[in-house]
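Re: beginner question about structure tokens

> Can someone show what the tokenized structure looks like for a real chain? I only ever see the sequence side.

Sure, here's an example I had lying around. Input first:
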Amino acid sequence: MAVMRSLLGMSGIISYIARRVLTSLPVLFMIVLVSFLMIRAIPGGPFVASGQRAQTPEVMAAMEKYYGLDRPLLLNLPGSSPDWQLLHYVDEPISERVEVVSLKPEMREVLQAVAGEPVQTLLDGQYNTQVQRIAFYKDQGVTRAEMPALLDDLRTLQETVGDSEAAEQITNAIDAYKGADFSKLPVSPTIRTTTRSVLYSDLFQSQFGNYFFNLLRLDFGPSLGVTNRGRPVGDIISTKLPISMALGVMAVVTAIITGVPLGVLAAVNHNRPADHIAMFFAVVGRAVPNIVIGPVLIIVFAVQLKLFPVVNPYAWINGPQANPATYFSTAFLPVVTLAMGMAAGIARLTRASLLQVLNQDYIRTARAKGLAERNVIYGHGLRNSLIPVVTILGPLLAAVLTGTFVVELVFAIPGLGDTFVTSVTTRDYNLLVGVTVLYSAFLVGANILVDVLYTWIDPRIQFRS
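And the corresponding structure tokens:
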């Protein structure tokens, strides 16, 4: 029975996660659409200037055409753009296996001659259709069924070129197949490529249509900014994201192991000096912004006391595997800067939630049974008071994983946050939308993870399929 309950519980969780993911897809689509339109509504563009020099209209038009920014914005509707037609024919290549005739030397020579420049000069632009067919037969081969048409084309050209070497070659080629049974000519298999005209309706051949269909393949497009122009946005994100994720994970872990004990200490010593001191530091950490905390920590611990390096971008790029001591000493100050505000919020929320739980009847019952105060607080009270704390960890974790812009700028960390800020100033459309979509996906995933953690914290919460 226990195994059955466990399997039913797992199936309920999996079913719940699948439903949440499916219901999140329309939300992600709207985020992509709105961010795509709002970013392009910003005045200016990625090609307005190169450094300090303004670009000419001709250069900007050429760049927009190269990167597809000359297309209609949302849908390729009739009249959207004179350069983009809703309905048009496209030559589509078709490869097929056919059996082509093993031509005699006289026929191969005449096909080579007719497709050559001397005969083209004699024809003076006439009979282009016949010449094009013959050139096709020379390159792709001719089937048994096409042999009569080939001979008819050669007879037509024979009358045009008059008395010349080419006319003699054509006569010899025709005579070589005089009275021949085409169905019995020797053949050999080959792959022949032809083209056909296909009518296309390019309704989605627009900026948003192309971007969205590429996004379904996890292709964020090329960067349009001056710094990384032409480089795939996916490569930029894959290079910068691990640095921001490392900073974010260390900061969240530091905030949890600092904020939760501080909140418990304040709740247990309610309205006592320990409570006032803990909440004083919590309020200070919450009130003072990172842009102030960061420089203060640099001045005190890096410049004055020289305990930590000021900035070291290469330590972040190389990672902890290169030199753990250098990496963690470099990461200490930005992690503390980022964790202080989060730890303050977690401490205040833990205190308020634990105070409410400690006044519940089951806590008084546990104390009446003679349980130690430590077991009452940590075994019964704290676990039930963590649900509000876990709730805020979802968006908090998503935010720090994609980069905290201010901290990365202050400490010169080459993460995704610094790249995102730079892309705003350079109007890098694809990078801006890519980071926005990535943050949204992290936010959805973190919220689903929080919902699953509820079942571990409170067994009364269950997901039933």
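Each token stands for a local structural state, so reading them left to right follows the chain. The chain has a mean pLDDT of 80.
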